[in-house]
Protein: Matrix metalloproteinase-17-like
Amino acid sequence: DWLTRYGYLPPPDPSTGQLQAWTAVTQAVRAMQKFAGLKETGVVDGDTLNLMRTPRCSLPDEGGDGIVPPLHTENHHHRQKRRSPSTWSRRSINWRFQTNLLLHLYFFYERFFKISRIFFIFSHISNLHTFTRLRSYPTSTALSREMIRSLVFYALKVWAEPTKLEFHEVASPEGADLQVDFLHGSHGDGFPFDGVGGAVGHAFFPSDPDRAGGVHLDSEEDWSFRQPASEGTDLFTVLVHEFGHALGLSHSSSRHSVMRPYYQGPVGDPLRFTLGSQDREQITKLYDLTRNVRLKQLKCVLCVSHSNEADRCTTSFDAVARIRGDMFFFKDLNMWRVSSGGLVSEKAASIRRMWGGLPPNLSPLQAVFERRSDHTIVFITGSQFWFFNDLALQEGYPQPLHVLGVRGGEQGLVWDTEKGVVWGDKNKRNSERLESETWRELLSEGVNGITTDSDGKRELYEHVFTGSIYIFKDHLYWKFSHPGSAPDAGYPRALATDWLDCPRPSSALPEGLSFGPPTGRQEFHGMETKQERDQEMEDKKRFRKDRGKMAKKHFERERDSLEHWLCSK
Structure:
């Protein structure tokens, strides 16, 4: 049964009950031993038996190593299609968390009405952005939902680093390409789970017409994190392996590969773990950056054009925020996004396309920021504020600003020369005030949208990147190498030119801006301007032997900014 389940033997003929020929069994054992790196005896000896008892991925050991795929199973059609993994044509993958009501209904009907299977059909979308979500959770585990979310995030980051793929949580299920489920027993896909040990998970290749990107984990496993191998199955390790399948990789016979089918214990700390050379080579073959011209150049889902969108090269922005390592420039109902590779699209994206919990008649934003303590994303406009976990609106929001002890209306974030950022009247100079300790704490978490005390109608935004302070105002930005110092030479510079890939303006730039010493700042790590990115590209050309260097650098910066939160869980 084991040899049949994992692709080394075809199943016996169900109509005749014919047994397997002994020579075929011997050859299958040899093939299994060869793939596993054991001595090829053709006999199920102690080492072979121990390996067969090791927890492993449910998928058969086919492809790449000469292993013959299974010839006949109830899922024969789908397994044969798995031999052509293909890839996703998207570069950005989003994910979200949702209680799986459909799953509970499925088990109810399966138990009482004997419905044998329900297939969850996922759309295979052929443009530059894919979507991912975690649809259900294990029923019994010591890991919290937030911890599971964090581990999913870091497991995806492992594959993002060498491929330039981007992973995000979606706000609705319709657009998800990668679906993560914790299931038990037979769940309708031909790869049943068997409780603790045995099969721990499986995933489906992008080429599977019905289930592309499905990632299934056994909900009855004793899932653990940062525990010895004897105290449960490390969830991060299994997630990295299964996401490899979902991106197009098959099993590897290498003992040093995360795609080896057998569970070998924790691979390491999610904050530090990176792929080995073999896995990096295989995934970069699938997602070779030089193949971009051969990808379908369809309109990006996140970059839907709007007839009333502002011109990014001439507009002044309502808010600027650094979220999950990327810069977002907000104007009315639209936004532009700048990742480590530069501007994602010249076309504006709808804010609600990512944060669907915001109202369709959203007023111009007054402030957007990622809260430092728990990475909650906060939107403030008018007299209300919204809290989001990634792209999902938290329950009970929006809430009125008076909950925080502050007023709405004309109130806003104001730059004070002595206090830094305070909440006050944007139209009355020197009327600013901090109305509660709650708001003071909120500010300390990292608000970045503020107004100048000299011009209540213009927004000013402040960020700290790699030790330097960047001030954004209207069409310009300033860089300060040291707090309280004068702007660096050559500033101000054109925001649209350096950040949004716009032509350099012909008009002369003003020489300065009157405001007090920059205090009360939010600290971030690792976002370069266009000028600095150009320099990095030159460095990249000089070091072609390590194509992933820049991606690794960006990942490590973002990873470090989240480290204190993950370690506290």
